[in-house]
Amino acid sequence: MDETVIIELLAWESAQPLALAVRFDVFVQEQGVPPELERDELDASSLHAVARFPDGSVVGTGRLLPDGHIGRMAVADSARGQGIGGRILEALVDRATELGHHQVVLNAQCHAQPFYMRHGFVAEGPIFDDAGIDHISMTRTLAKAKA
Ligand code: COA
Predict the structure, then answer these.
(1) CATH 3.10.50.40 for the 6-141 domain, yes or no
(2) Do 105 and 24 meet the contact criterion of CB atoms below 8 Å apart?
(3) CA dihedral 26, 23, 79, 63 (to 10 degrees)
(4) Residue 15 Cα to ligand 1 middle (Å)
(5) Which of 28, 36, 102, 118 has the most CB within a 10 Å radius?
(6) Distance CA 46, CA 69 (A)
């Protein structure tokens, strides 16, 4: 677990210059998602987790939509397997809890299903295609926020 990574939750205006490069590297370059599908109008209304090393370099991101959906989870290839993706996910879940959501939902790429299961998400429904990648819907029920 890399404890030195700092996770911040930012509005799109602040997150965009930080998060776009890692999203482009992971989804467009690595996974072949068309660039026009990578960005959408939901970015502007979402909260974005941005993970940075103390030197400022961005290693990961993810977003929480106003309706409690989580998406665009990405960690730079060189930084995976150190718990950074897990910390991004938990930061987004914590914020969803604070905002009063009863559950969070995401469309997981099937290969990442074990990652989300380890964080309490349960798969439901059929596997479906999105941008040429197999996905499955997953949900995590949230505890009530502490007063
Ligand atoms: N296949 C199988 N297991 C995977 C996996 C995959 N594609 N991606 C992550 N995991 C598992 C790893 O086996 C690892 O388990 P371990 O610690 O027992 O070895 C664990 O998840 C990694 O957890 P963590 O270090 O917290 O996550 P991370 O920083 O590696 O980030 C992702 C996880 C999914 C965000 C990262 O792998 C990523 O950016 N992948 C490419 C983009 C992507 O698929 N995003 C998800 C879209 S739904």
Answers:
(1) no
(2) no
(3) -130
(4) 22
(5) 28
(6) 9
Domain spans in the chain, listed from the N-terminal domain onward: 6-141
Distance CA(30)–CA(18), nearest Å, equals 18
Q: Which atom of ligand 1 is nearest to the CA of 118?
A: 21
Quick one: how many helices (H) and strands (E) in the chain? 4, 7
Instruction: Supply angle C-alpha 42, 48, 49, rounded to 5.
Output: 155
pLDDT digits (tens), the chain, 147 positions: 667 899 999 999 999 999 999 999 999 999 999 999 999 999 999 999 999 999 999 999 999 999 999 999 999 999 999 999 999 999 999 999 999 999 999 999 999 999 999 999 999 999 999 989 999 999 999 987 666
pLDDT on residue 2? 66
Residue nearest to atom 21 of ligand 1 (CA): 115
Identity at 48, one-letter amino acid code: H
Cβ neighbours of residue 105 closer than 8 Å, sequence gap 6 or more: 68, 69, 70, 137, 138, 139
